[in-house]
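Q: I'm writing a short explainer about Solute carrier organic anion transporter family member for a general audience and would like to include a description of its predicted shape. Could you first generate the structure from this sequence?
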Amino acid sequence: MAEPGKRVTTHGPRCFSKIKMFLLALAVAYVAKSLSGAYMNSMLTQIERQFDIPTSVVGLINGSFEIGNLLLIIFTSYFGMKLHRPLMIGVGCVVMGLGCFLMSLPHFLMGRYEYEKSISPASNLSSNSFLCSGNKTQTLTPPHDPKECMKEIKSSMWIYIMVGNVIRGAGETPIMPLGISYIEDFAKSENSPLYIGILNIGTVIGPLIGLMLASFSANTYVDVGSVNTDDLTITPTDTRWVGAWWVGFLICAGVNVLTSIPFLFFPKTLPKEGQEDNVDVTKSDREEKHGGKAKEEKRGITKDFLPFMKSLFCNSIYMLFILLSVLHLNAIVIIITFMPKYLEQQYGKSIAEIVFLIGLYTLPPIFLGYVIGGLIMKKFKTSMKKAAYIAFCLTLTEFLLFFFYFLITCDNFPVVGLTTSYDGIQQPLYVENNVLADCNTRCNCLTKTWDPVCGENGLAYMSACLAGCEKSVGTGINMVFQNCSCIGSSGNASAVLGLCEKGHDCTIMLKYFFTLALIGSLIHSVAAIPGYMVFLRSIKSEEKSLGIGLHAFCTRVFAAIPAPIYFGALIDRTCLHWGTLKCGEPGACRMYDTNNFRNIYIGVPAVLRGLSLLPAVFILKLMRKRQLPGETDSSETELAETKLTEKKSECVDVHRSPEVENDRELKTKL
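A: Of course. Here's the predicted structure. Afterward I'll give you a sentence or two in plain language.
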């Protein structure tokens, strides 16, 4: 009767002693971390406008996450194997929550957002100085106040966001390498691809929630509750609009902290999957094994590091995978980070709408692709060589489809003085002298102020003054400007606030873009699981955790950190008009040359992805000649089994041949 009682007492904690329970908790952690990452990427444009910083600085803020990850990745990947892996993952989730909370602080520490405008939102505006009036004396440049400028420069609150992102990156460090190595150690080898596919599904669900949250935040004014939104002269489609970016970071902080709780209850080791029912044997074996090796692990915690590193660097397939990943991830980081900004400028939609469409069209096919990829590996028991060919062919197909993005184009916004002349003729570059014309020279307008209006002639002007408008009616976003001499020759033409909307053709092009993105996302995600399993099988089991960490280290140093910075600087070179701070210094970019933006945004990733195919070809050639560590090709196994069967049958025939001959002789005689 003692044994059943013993089993009852061990049954309670065993709910946290099964690999599937750990898989569930880790999948939720993947959802939480990817939720934070997707939300951060979607809010980059809002942060850029809130703090009036160039895109290159925004790239630095985005790359700071990888810097935090980089600080601990090698240490965590190697030494984490010797420590309590579930506990370290739980601590990482808490740290991520703290980072997200710090990122929301600038909203509470700084004043209200004041966007660049020349319009007073309330009262009758016919007498205000922003309108065209020939009898006033007004300079063509805003007054420079050095004290005001120093005040704005010193209030660099975006540093809080960067530091918070560094902390978030440090907290995420243990989740992937320790989680995957924990699953690889205690799951059946045939179930491992499916489990990793389930984890990747978590990285789809998280961004889906994050993008929906980002869409809501981007559509809500940043100072909601403290300002009267009816007095605003901008809408979410305006490039000066800033959404409530801080709300989502508070939500992400709470979610990450709650995610950490289950990991506090998991043991350091688990019984191998399929042996959970053998509780007493498994427990005693585990105690013997780990008790006998405890001192050896402590002595060898640094002894094996250099040999493992040497072994990894001598592994040609593994090193080619790192080169492939660096090139490929450069392209992926560029595409994901700057997609909202690109689509906003290219197709003239609001960030809130763009973010919603990104989640709708790209994440469900990625989810489906991960499931298909994992099921293919499990159902057909695909060998690593076949998996490598599958991943390569699918990646090549998706790469060729990528070039169709060059054909899905849309023209620049028609802004007089930037992209078109006053006669409506498109011009390639911004020429400051062309901002003024005969119709507005007498108005003494500010030439750098960005407060656009759309004329009834279909052309936009950088301000109502430059449109030659002499009076206005209405308040807030409903203002109408009248007697605009530059819009119509009769002098009684009108204009409304904001840029002119792009035509119906742009809306159709946007649908083509997302249709192609849907197909590409599906193909790319199906290839991800076979490709990643080949990568895992290229590493020896004892080197797996360190190998994953080193791979993550290299991809962060050479891809995830520099890519948004250098590409942000390239985007800044396509800016047609910079916003102006109160002190006269340039702020965030208000409008880009969409043609140059498109060539850079599509061209640079295309080159990087093309280069990443070269090491993939070498990997396929090397895999023909050698066997991956710990992996036996199924075809070779079948061949060996066939030969063994033939050999056995020959032996049977040899032994039985005399008896057969005797039987034949007897039958003949009869």
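A: For your explainer, you could say: The chain is about 60% helix and 5% strand.
Q: Perfect, that's easy to follow.
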